[in-house]
From TrEMBL, chain A:
It comes from the Eukaryota. It holds the Pfam family CTLH. PROSITE patterns: CTLH, LISH. Residues 60-117 form the CTLH domain. This is LisH motif-containing protein. It comes from Laccaria bicolor (strain S238N-H82 / ATCC MYA-4686). Signal peptide: none annotated.
UniProtKB/TrEMBL annotation, chain B:
Residues 415-424 have a biased composition (Polar residues). It comes from Laccaria bicolor (strain S238N-H82 / ATCC MYA-4686) (Bicoloured deceiver). This is Predicted protein. Transmembrane segments: none annotated. PANTHER family: RAN BINDING PROTEIN 9-RELATED (PTHR12864). Residues 426-439 have a biased composition (Basic and acidic residues). SMART domains: CRA (SM00757), CTLH (SM00668), SPRY (SM00449). It holds the Pfam family SPRY. Coiled coil: none annotated. Residues 1-12 have a biased composition (Low complexity). Residues 19-207 form the B30.2/SPRY domain.
Length: 227, 565
């Protein structure tokens, strides 16, 4: 690899300055985030204040958020009903998602210590699906092994994480994405793509050149390029 | 930067002249980073037994013998710019119907022309007689079908540094590794038998192979790769990549970062209602978790910041609506440093704008007087020919008696200046609507009003001139000149050009933005929101990678992936 070149801070600043980007572009990024992440009233206000046409109707944001909240408080049954109210095809055409919801329901039953109910549910609803796909089966087994530990703290991380809020968020995220897809709305937050693009780009560039870094969290450029 | 040869139809002769401008209808990267593409065979860089046709596209073998030692190769004038991501060209074999001892491929700068591409180091080729691929080797590796009388395509994917070939539009497969890693690469073809002729297509005409969908596939592959990149917390903090064990933000943590980016952006631009709604909707889950990077200070800050945003927004909006006096007064009250810094530069700019507003008011009045006169003239005309619409004109007569109100109404608020841009006009049409005019103005008063407004404007200008007469900064002199220059125009708003840059609605918005940034700066806040910096930093990195020949960067098209939906 050839020696790293070094880009002077003033030169880098000039390049940053030359990048073409408008306030309207950035506003649309914000709107994209508010809509996909379900900030309904913020999206409404922003549509007004920034004079930006809403990309979806705001009611659909609300129903998506109701579903997400139901999942986050562990009421899977309610979430399933709401998804079906919104559009029955979402679960009909997406067996993996339906399985994920059923699995979440099983997790919630175990969390509440309703063991016999959990067993019954697993045998009736989940086991037949486990036969359909090895992936479902392995997930089912992982979930059932929660029962093997009296206190979840004793379980290995790979298993106890099923009881974490992160697991609920993950399920909720998958449902959210599926609903957005059914509305033919992008389901990836563009800002996340932008953050990843920065990490990817800086990683590649760092191998080749010294340049001025950005502290994204503070929104300020870092003074020294040396580590 | 997302161009590749198939979207860059090249004219066959522009290549001869290194300063030639590209064909007009091409999509090219910014001038500074423009790249030359291979568009024809070089008349210099070839074996003497090869004849290059006048248009630079055909090669014919002029020798008589038939053996390895009589091989003859040629290459293009310009190398392939790696920033194109994928480069592709096609060769049609014209002279041979049966067996062809031809090699099609790529070669570096110094490779001997007496050898077929693929035999020598820094050359790679696909041979027609045995269908083998050669990379600096005497005996090739079994690769694809033999060819003769076919159309063979050769591509190089700079994102993977692998080559690929096609035959009559069908993809054969990726081949070779690390192609041209540290050298310039040229399309290169070698012939070795009498009667062998080839014609090349460097994008002059449509390709046999569907290169566009191939490029599309590669682009998605690169983008998927990017989306799989973990978000490294140390990168976000502007430090180098963590070398010991890669760390990744959890979903919740990255959500915290995103929320902060969004919130600071909203605060920066003063979207106060959105800020409030956004904060109200923060789920407790998030607020409680992630002690590190998340909402901590921002939330607290914005609590007390509420009043601050409101004030800044008020100031900015005053400028945008042309109410410069309020903007100056309120800035003076809350952010005096902003007006004073740099020897009162910001104050000067605001006062210049105030002068512009005063002048615009006068031109507006003049226009009204003029249109009133015209209406009168018309009316007389109608009366003379006995065709007047009594009812309508009666209205006007009545209106003309109501002079007393005119004074109040004529001290126009600045917002009455009718920019063609909508945002200013909300609910303000009344003052300039035709029947308002008729009621508010009599011609005598209108003229007096105009006179008065003009005097006010000039007096203001003289005062401004006096206050800054000793300021010799070029920036000040220039703005001063431009500002006073607008008086020369009957309607500065219509004048366009440099006048427009002083008087236009956009000029107000720009000034408002400048003031906003100055206030933020005076508070020790960044002048650009973090989100904007994030975009700029990312775009600059990608551009730099592109110019350094990192092929993947060509497919990481930021505006396409992030801004277009």
């Amino acid at each position: 690899m050839p020696p790293k070149s070094s880009i002077r801070a003033e030169e880098w600043d000039r390049r940053l300055h030359d990048v073409q980007i408008t306030k309207n572009d950035l506003n649309r990024l914000i709107m994209d985030y508010l809509v996909i992440e379900g900030y309904k009233s913020a999206a409404e206000e922003f549509s007004q204040e920034a004079n930006l046409a809403p990309p979806v109707d705001f009611e659909s944001i609300e129903s998506r958020m109701d579903i997400r909240e139901a999942l986050q408080r562990g009421d899977v049954e309610d979430a399933i009903i709401r998804v079906n109210d919104l559009n029955p095809e979402i679960l009909d055409t997406n067996p993996a998602l339906y399985f994920r919801l059923q699995q979440q329901k099983l997790i919630e039953l175990i969390r509440l210590g309703r063991i016999s109910e959990a067993l019954e549910f697993a045998q009736e609803e989940l086991a037949p699906r486990g036969e359909e796909s090895p992936e479902f089966l392995s997930e089912l087994e992982r979930t059932m092994s929660l029962l093997a530990f009296e206190a979840s703290a004793a379980a290995p991380a790979g298993i106890s994480e099923l009881l974490s809020p992160a697991q609920r968020m993950k399920t909720a995220g998958e449902v959210n994405a599926a609903i957005l897809e059914s509305l033919s709305q992008g389901n990836e937050v563009k800002l996340v793509g932008l953050l990843k693009l920065l990490c990817w780009g800086e990683m590649l560039l760092e191998e080749r050149a010294e340049f001025r870094k950005l502290n994204v969290v503070e929104g300020s450029l870092v003074d020294s390029v040396h580590v | 930067m997302h161009t590749h040869p198939s979207t860059l139809p090249a004219s066959s002769d522009s290549d001869d002249d290194s300063t030639a401008t590209p064909p007009r209808d091409t999509v090219l990267p910014p001038k500074e980073y423009s790249f030359k593409l291979p568009t024809c065979w070089s008349d210099q860089d070839r074996h003497s037994l090869l004849n290059v046709s006048l248009n630079g596209r055909e090669l014919s073998y002029q020798g008589t013998s038939c053996g390895d030692k009589d091989a003859a190769a040629a290459r293009t004038i310009h190398p392939i710019p790696p920033a194109c991501g994928i480069y592709y060209y096609e060769v049609e074999i014209l002279g041979k119907e049966h067996k062809s001892h031809i090699s099609i491929g790529l070669a570096g700068h110094g490779v001997k022309f007496s050898r077929l591409p693929g035999w020598e180091p820094n050359s790679w080729g696909y041979h027609g007689d045995d269908g083998c691929s050669f990379a600096a080797e005497k005996n090739g590796t079994s690769y694809g079908p033999t060819y003769a009388g076919d159309i063979i395509g050769c591509g190089i994917d700079f994102t993977t540094r692998r080559a690929f070939f096609t035959k009559n539009g069908s993809f054969i497969g990726a081949v070779f590794e690390n192609v041209g890693k540290d050298i310039d690469l040229y399309p290169s073809v070698g012939l070795q038998h009498a009667g062998e002729i080839i014609r090349v297509n460097f994008g002059h005409e449509p390709f046999k192979f569907d290169i566009d969908s191939h490029v599309q596939q590669q682009r998605s592959a690169v983008w998927n790769n990017i989306l799989a990149t973990p978000i490294d917390p140390s990168v976000l903090e502007g430090r180098s990549m963590s070398t010991t064990g890669k760390t990744t933000l959890s979903d919740e943590q990255s959500k915290g970062v995103l929320n902060k980016l969004v919130l600071t952006y909203l605060v920066h631009h003063g979207y106060a209602k959105t800020v409030r709604a956004f904060q109200k909707q923060q789920p407790d889950v998030l607020a409680a978790k992630d002690p590190d990077i998340v909402m901590d200070d921002t939330v607290a800050e914005t609590g007390g910041m509420d009043e601050d945003i409101k004030c800044r927004t008020r100031i900015v909006n005053s400028v945008i609506t042309g109410d410069i006096d309020s903007a100056i007064a309120e800035t003076k009250k809350h952010h005096p440093v902003v007006l004073e810094s740099e020897n009162h530069l910001m104050l000067f700019k605001l006062r210049c704008r105030k002068f512009v507003e005063l002048i615009l008011e006068t031109t507006e009045m003049k226009k009204r007087i003029k249109s009133l006169k015209e209406t009168r003239a018309e009316k007389r005309h109608y009366d003379e020919i006995g065709n007047g619409n009594g009812e309508f004109w009666m209205d006007e007569e009545m209106g003309m008696d109501v002079d007393d109100d005119a004074v109040g109404l004529m001290s126009t608020s600045p917002t009455t200046i009718p920019y063609n841009t909508q945002p200013l006009r909300n609910g303000r049409e009344k003052a300039v609507s035709p029947d308002g005019e008729a009621k508010d103005l009599s011609s005598v008063d209108a003229a007096a009003q105009y006179e008065m407004a003009l005097n006010t404007a000039i007096a203001y200008g003289q005062e401004l001139s006096n206050d800054y007469k000793s300021d010799t900064r070029p920036e000040v002199r220039q703005l001063f000149k431009q500002t006073f220059g607008i008086v020369a125009w009957e309607d500065p708003l219509e004048a366009g050009g440099s006048v427009a840059s002083v008087v236009s609605y956009e000029a107000r918005v720009n000034l408002a933005n400048e003031l906003n940034q100055a206030i933020l700066k005076s508070q020790g806040r960044p002048t650009r929101p973090a989100l904007e910096m994030l975009y700029r930093q990312t775009a600059a990195c990608l551009l730099q990678l592109g110019t350094m020949g990192v092929g993947e960067a060509a497919f990481a098209d930021i505006s396409r992936e992030i801004l277009e939906s």
